[in-house]
């Protein structure tokens, strides 16, 4: 073997060693790369798995919480609805009580006014014994408290059994007809000693003379001394109020007593004056 061949062989051996080392390094790199790929695949799988688990865990608590919140809200809503219904019921009761109280207040106020009017009327009727003043007071009561526009006061003449007009308002005194006891609506009402109320009065005054709106007999105990005949109400007076009937009852008794007492007083006063004049004439 020559020196040159020896050198070439050494170089080839060196190259073969380096080639083996390179191949070994390449194989290791290949194995390492494969290991990395496997590990990467494993990690990716784990990541996907973890994401799914996380998603499940995230979804599960939210749904439970949502269900819990929803159930809680439903319960609270039901409670609020019950309270609302209870409040509505109490409000309805309170409103009904308020309406009842308001109506009672109106009734009490109306009764107070009625009592005040009746007291004033009664006081006025017995405040004087002057006959003309008593008649004037009765006329004012009928106008101011009952709302009469056209009416007349009749007194009974026991001898002729005739009802004669004694005072009037809203109608010509000369036009008021005299009425025989027991004849016509007025005569029959007085004879029966019963009040008469016409539910469909005529618009004609002359017809109302025969068939008036109201006829209230004036009585002392069971004796009738006359009657109040109402032909027409004031324009603003549409219908009778409960107090009107109370006033009719008061007039039927108290007005009769006031008229009777004032007539006796006036007559006795006139007789006293006559007797006094006669005594003065005898003493001269």
Q: Please give the share of residues in helix.
A: 55-70%
If you compute it from the alpha carbons, what radius of gyration comes out, rounded to the nearest whole angstrom? 59 Å
As residue ranges, the low-confidence spans are 1-6
- Tell me the strand order in the biggest sheet: 3-2-1-6-5-4
Order of helices and strands: HHEEEHEHEEH
Fraction of residues in β-strands: 5-15%
Give average pLDDT, whole number. 81
Q: Name the quaternary structure.
A: single chain
Compute the number of helices: 5
**What is the CA-CA span between the terminal residues?**
217 Å
Helix and strand composition category: alpha+beta
Explain how this protein is built:
Residues 1-6 have low confidence and may be disordered. The chain is 69% helix and 14% strand. Helix 1 (3-125) packs antiparallel against helix 2 (131-146), helix 1 (3-125) packs parallel to helix 5 (242-283) and helix 2 (131-146) runs antiparallel to helix 5. The protein has 284 residues and is α+β, with helices and mostly antiparallel strands. It is built from 5 helices and 6 strands; from the N terminus they run H-H-E-E-E-H-E-H-E-E-H.
Topology at a glance:
Layout: H1 3-125, H2 131-146, E1 148-157, E2 162-169, E3 179-180, H3 184-192, E4 196-197, H4 205-210, E5 214-220, E6 223-233, H5 242-283
Antiparallel strand pairs: 1-2, 1-6, 2-3, 4-5, 5-6
Helix pairs in contact: 1-2, 1-5, 2-5
């Amino acid at each position: 073997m020559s020196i040159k061949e020896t050198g070439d062989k050494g170089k080839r051996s060196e190259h073969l060693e380096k080639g083996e080392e390179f191949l070994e390094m390449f194989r290791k790199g290949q194995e390492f790369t494969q290991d990395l790929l496997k590990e990467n695949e494993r990690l990716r799988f784990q990541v996907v798995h973890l994401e799914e688990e996380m998603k499940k865990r995230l979804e599960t608590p939210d749904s439970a919480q949502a269900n819990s919140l929803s159930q809680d809200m439903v319960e609270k809503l039901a409670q609020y609805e019950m309270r609302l219904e209870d409040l509505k019921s109490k409000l309805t009761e309170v409103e009904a009580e308020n309406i009842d109280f308001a109506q009672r207040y109106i009734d009490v106020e109306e009764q107070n006014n009625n009592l005040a009017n009746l007291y004033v009327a009664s006081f006025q009727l017995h405040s004087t014994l002057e006959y003309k003043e008593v008649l004037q007071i009765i006329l004012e009561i009928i106008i101011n408290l009952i709302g009469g526009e056209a009416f007349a006061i009749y007194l009974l003449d026991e001898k002729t059994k005739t009802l004669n007009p004694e005072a009037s308002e809203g109608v010509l005194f000369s036009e008021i007809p005299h009425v025989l006891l027991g004849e016509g609506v007025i005569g029959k009402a007085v004879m029966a000693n019963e009040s008469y109320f016409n539910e469909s009065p005529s618009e004609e005054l002359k017809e109302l003379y025969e068939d008036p709106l109201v006829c209230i007999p004036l009585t002392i105990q069971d004796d009738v001394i006359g009657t109040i005949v109402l032909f027409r109400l004031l324009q603003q007076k549409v219908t009778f109020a409960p107090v009107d009937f109370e006033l009719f009852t008061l007039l039927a008794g108290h007005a009769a007593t006031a008229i009777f007492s004032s007539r006796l007083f006036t007559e006795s006063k006139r007789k006293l004056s006559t007797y006094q004049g006669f005594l003065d004439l005898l003493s001269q």
